[in-house]
Amino acid sequence: MCDTFVIRRNNRMIFGKNSDREPGEAQLVVRIPPVSGDLQKKIGATYITIDQTGRRHGLLLSKPSWIWGAEMGANDRGVVIGNEAVFTRVMEKTAGLIGMDLVRLGLERGDDALHALHVITGLLEAHGQGGICGYRDKDFRYDNSFIIADPENAWVLETAGRHWAARKVVDYAAISNCLTIGTDYDMTSAGIEDFAKSKGCYKGKGALDFRAAFESPVMPFFARSRRRVQTTGDAICVLPESCVEGEISGAMDILRTHQSPAGTPASGSNADICMHAAGPIRRSQTCGSMISLLDRGNAIHLLTGTSAPCLSVFKPAEVTGDKPFYVQNPDGQTVEGSLWRRFEPVHRHALFSATIREMLRQSGKQAEREMLFCLKGGLDDAGGQDRLHAAEDSVRAWTEKQVETFAKRPFQYPLSPYGWFWKRMNRMDGIDPA
Q1: The one catalytic residue among 2, 201, 274, 287
Q2: Domains recognised in the chain with CATH numbers
Q3: For tag attachment on the chain, is the N or C end more exposed, with fewer CB atoms within 10 Å?
Q4: For residue 250, which phi and psi values (nearest 5 degrees)?
Q5: pLDDT, tens digit (0-9, with 9 covering 90-100), for 17-28
Q6: Confidence at residue 38, expressed as pLDDT on a 0 to 100 scale
């Protein structure tokens, strides 16, 4: 389960996404340099091989370690993309490109938001979407929706099998694990009405309602997907007009939203934007978060590189450049020694202690305030790089302090199903082998 939003404000785009995956599924931040003149003819995605392109943009990705594609990311042309699992009546069971592959391919090949949309839809129509998307749950499959944005335009793209509908964003958009496009689309795949009629999803009277025709309602109901879309939209509507730091801080607050004001992980719900796993009913955990502020020639990207944004801090990174960033992993697969893996004991200790949670939240907010103060001048002048690295230093110091404090501290599990669930998870993930 996930949540993604985009806001057009003050001639800028604000993009945010929480990536909710299975507990223990490391999500790594990686940077991939641009490529030109590549003679390689084919590329292997997660499950299938497709034609390669000789020119590819530089990328910043947040990706599950075992998957070729990414949950969210940005390219060196100022395009950002995030995807959501959606559940449709026409989901294909054969192998194809999974949604995370389409995120990466759209960023590699897309020159702007509209071009990236056409890249994704072209590949979707040619290869279909399909394949196991669960880390441990090998029965988990889904179709996908996307928010695709650049500094000037943003699109919501929703899919059902090889068909799709797209709506241009006017002021803001929020998506979750449900279809949101009805008859208000600006573009659709060719032949979609005939396809829907052939599947018994549309009787041919009136405009095709994409959501009514294709959505399978069971999973969105139990996942509280529409509630999360509403929660995100309500938070966007009351977001005050502000400076760059205020806009980023407001986006962080949205991604940290819980239905319970206390944000107690054990008593959370599937309606939370910041998701905490708690067994079979609440299976997903926010394993990575990203915020991007897109201005003409001046993109700021912040990623947690860790679980649970309410218990962690956002960290800056650039799409291109020679200097590695603290949040960045050397490659897309090495979990041991990664920031995600090193910080995970901190996250899991905090699940059982209100005192630890409050300490992390208050001290983390201070570190982020220092980071945002450093970034307030932007990155598009001679001093931009110095400000970026100064911003990184404040959140690096906070993170390393927490890792040092909690890395070897013994766990105190509550005597409850919640405690038993996390004790099992900690053993499976090698975090508490005792």
Answers
A1: 2
A2: 2-332 (3.60.60.10)
A3: C
A4: -65, -40
A5: 999 999 999 999
A6: 85
